[in-house]
Amino acid sequence: MSEIRTVGICGAGGTMGAGIAIVAARAGFTTISYDRSEEALERSRKDTAAFIGKSVERGKLTPEERDRTLDAMRTTTKLEGLGQCDLVIEAVFEELSVKRDLVRTLDAVCDASTIVASNTSTLSITEIAAGSKRPDKVVGMHFCLPAQMMKLIEMSPGLLTSDETFQTAWKWTEKCGQIPVKTQDKPGFILNALLVPFNNDAIRAVEAGVAEPADIDKALRAALGYKMGPLELIDLIGLDTQVRLSEAFYPITLDGRAAAPPLLRRMVAAGLLGRKSGRGFFRYEGEAMFGA
Fold this sequence. Notes:
Blueprint: E1 6-10, H1 15-26, E2 30-34, H2 38-57, H3 63-71, E3 73-76, E4 87-90, H4 96-109, E5 115-118, H5 125-129, E6 138-143, E7 152-157, H6 163-175, E8 179-182, H7 191-207, H8 213-224, H9 230-237, H10 239-253, H11 262-269
């Protein structure tokens, strides 16, 4: 079984990619973050440093751990910069053709032994792996947002994923202090199969005038013990992301609850994207990547 020492992140300029990079670097792995946009990477570096700094202030990390984490992190705008990686995790746009093309390109960039993990939350791992000449090296590794704070990782083998690939990736998640669960390669896996329709139901409740967003969230937190209400969660992941999840999930399942509600589409059209825009179902100060 191969050992993972260096980890690459594709799409590291986004919230999810940046969070995954923190998970890897915090666990002591050399981490190379790739994004085509230097501007996005610079924003990611700034927000990452701020998040890790706050982790020290809150006693979650020591100053020495902060320094080791930041020292382990590299960035690149060249995909070739991931050539030395033992594991590459893609966290790019949730579209099959985009992910499949990226996997195909990584074949030419990375060593034949490199494991490629997809952070997809709705798409088929087998279909993504079809873009690779080495589908046995492709595995699903779905982190939860925000990745640097949430422990769950849904681990999904495709039809051609080898046992060695799956076990190596599984052990890596445990070394990172995460909690892996094995899921089948089915739409939405566990989390989003339940969560996408549920979140849309909460939006429809607002749309129907059942209650104000704050009261809906308060009721569900109090009754079900959730740390965060569904509307606050949608603001965190981004209303535009909820639309993309719905658009990816509905055609596969034909579940009417998975279809994006009209209110959600109107809010996205108005630029009300949640924390990252400063306003969604609630208002926020600042536009930090991690909602700080």
